[in-house]
Amino acid sequence: MAFINYYQILDVSPDASEEEIKTAYRRQVKRYHPDTSIEPDSAARFIELHAAYELLLDPVKRQEYDEQHGLGAGGSVVPGTVRAGRRHAIPHYVPAAPVVIQMNPIVYSLAAEEVYTLFRQGILRGKAPKMESAAYYCHRCQYRWFVFLPPANSRSVPPPPPPPVQCPQCQASDWSEFLLLRCRHCSAVFEAEGPLREQSVHGQLRGRLFFPYALFPDCPYCQKPHWCMAEETRLGTAHSEPAS
């Protein structure tokens, strides 16, 4: 089952009290209610907030959720050393089978060959400009926005517009690029958020891509080093090459 961090959606800690959850919900509903909000992703956020509020206010459902994901008063997910994405483990890897990974709020539907690459190498790069709700999603700043089209019954329906060149929030031109990483020790799959290159000046792509160990020296979940197979291979090759 895909992991959705309802505590993160409401912006409360896993040991938050019932009153703290209610307060957080009321605060965020004022911001994202579709009838009054000016946020472009208010409808999607409002649905997420309501689902989180319903589950966390039900003591039985909350206890089951906490036990299933190691959250709540009994424990917590270990935070990353930098901005890691949400953890999602692949408990049973099946060769030549696709996998759906929900990182909340975006969902990655990986083809069999992509799953194989992520499982064997511990790294997968690609592009995913849209969420399931059809909202555009920036992987650098996590901003979400919609492009509204005329209704289908219009006499003249123009073709869908091309994806934006830059994120309207942070101006990054690599906003649709993602980097998924997998720890070979604990099987956690997480997303590297923020800049993926050495420099990002005025939204322009500059410099070479960061290697995984430059972003996460240790796995942000189990804290173990040497977690990425592709990095171990790269470093082993680099050390074996004679110095020029």
Automatic annotation (TrEMBL):
GO terms for molecular function: misfolded protein binding; protein-folding chaperone binding. Residues 5-69 form the J domain. InterPro entries: DnaJ_domain (IPR001623), DnaJ_domain_CS (IPR018253), Hsp70_co-chaperone_J-domain (IPR051948), J_dom_sf (IPR036869). It holds the Pfam family DnaJ. GO terms for biological process: ERAD pathway. SUPFAM superfamilies: Chaperone J-domain. Keywords: Chaperone. PROSITE patterns: DNAJ_1, DNAJ_2. PANTHER family: DNAJ HOMOLOG SUBFAMILY B MEMBER 9 (PTHR44360). This is J domain-containing protein. It comes from Reticulibacter mediterranei. The lineage of its organism: Bacteria, Bacillati, Chloroflexota, Ktedonobacteria, Ktedonobacterales.
